[in-house]
Amino acid sequence: MEKKLEKVYISYKHDANYKGAIDAIKRGLNANGIIFSIDENDIDYRDNIEEYEKEIGLADKVIMFVTPAYLRSLDCMFEMVQIFRKGNVEERVFPIVDLGEVPRNSNGLQSVKNYWDIEKQQKTDQIKTSMNSTNVLKELRKINNILIIIDEFWEFIVHVNTCNYKDLVENDAGLLMEKLKATLRNETVSVGEFT
Known about the structure:
This protein is of the alpha/beta class. Helix content is 62%, strand content 9%. The chain has helices at 19-31, 39-42, 49-58, 68-71, 74-86, 89-92, 106-129, 134-159, 165-187, and strands at residues 8-11, 36-37, 61-66, 93-97. A 4-stranded parallel sheet has the order 2-1-3-4, sandwiched between helices. The protein is globular and about 50 Å long.
């Protein structure tokens, strides 16, 4: 029976502007016989979305497609926190990055932090007026965790060469598949090697 963590997971934000890129990645994974998990296929009716996001965080291999919308998504950034908490990011994560107008430097980091600081303040204000603040408190905890991990995440996506995202996804994500398959081959051990 296949273990879920042996799949390659895709962490991304649904965005019509990047649908073609996500489709290219899926075609590349299928063409190369790489088992993968993506929310649109693997979250069924009544499944727990947060548990699936935690599963992404525990995965041995994750394609992380970072876009401006990803940086502003509580769900995506929750996945990011889970991924970075597990550690070993350099070996596990295959980043695809298109930050658009967000500068890939300390100014960009500050703009993302400012966004989450504002969200944090809004949630804090909501708690004061909300009769049932359990959900708001949960969101506030997620935001606090984002703010704790964001520097490590930013360091990774800024200082790891992620190439031009269009180059990574062209030809059914050929370059990405090449890099991904190389790590999968290195981790495959045949039974004969133990005798």
